[in-house]
Write a structure and sequence with these properties.
Layout (H helix, E strand, L loop, with lengths): L2 E10 L2 E4 L3 E7 L2 E7 L6 E7 L5 E7 L2 H9 L5 H11 L2 E7 L4 E6 L5 H16 L26
Antiparallel strand pairs: 1-2, 1-3, 1-8, 3-4, 4-5, 6-7, 7-8
Length: 155
């Protein structure tokens, strides 16, 4: 599974929220290409990440906490109840690729083979980060030094 499709995600504080548009994560050689295009084509982003720099890959299925926060904030109006109900009804699936510099987030549909993609990504990262095995040199032939005399033998 060299590629997955979905919607881009972004982080506001410590909350992950889906953004509008389309996103694709694709394994190409030793890099992870992430391309994002927002709705109406207003913004287009290409990110090329070395797979060796990937620390972890997170696959998450959970609630959208921003709906609960929005519901509590607007509870005085009737619309707050709608947001709270949506919080309990809706579930989202997303993948987070952690690198030292950034977090790449993609919201996907349940039918995507994300586990296979993550396994391939982490296996490739493990291979690229494995220490190089030194070549074994043939054993050196035993030779005696040329500037010493042989020991006298009894006889």
């Amino acid at each position: 599974m060299p590629e997955i499709h979905g919607r881009p995600g972004q982080v506001w504080g410590s909350v992950v929220i889906p953004a509008s548009g389309k996103a694709t994560m694709r394994i190409v050689g030793d890099t992870l290409h992430t391309s994002t295009k927002t709705s109406y084509g207003l913004e287009k982003k290409e990110i090329h990440t070395r797979i060796q720099n990937i620390d972890a890959v997170e696959v998450v299925e959970g609630r959208l906490w921003w709906l609960l926060f929005l519901g509590i904030a607007t509870l005085l109006w009737v619309i707050g109840i709608v947001f709270i109900v949506l919080f309990f009804v809706l579930k989202q699936n997303w993948i987070v690729v952690h690198t030292p510099c950034s977090h790449l987030i993609l919201f996907y549909k349940k039918s995507e083979n994300v586990q296979g993609f993550c396994t391939n990504l982490l296996n490739l990262s493990r291979q690229l980060n494995a220490p190089a095995i030194p070549r074994q040199q043939p054993p050196a032939q035993a030779t005696r030094p040329t500037n010493t005399r042989p020991a006298p033998t009894a006889g």
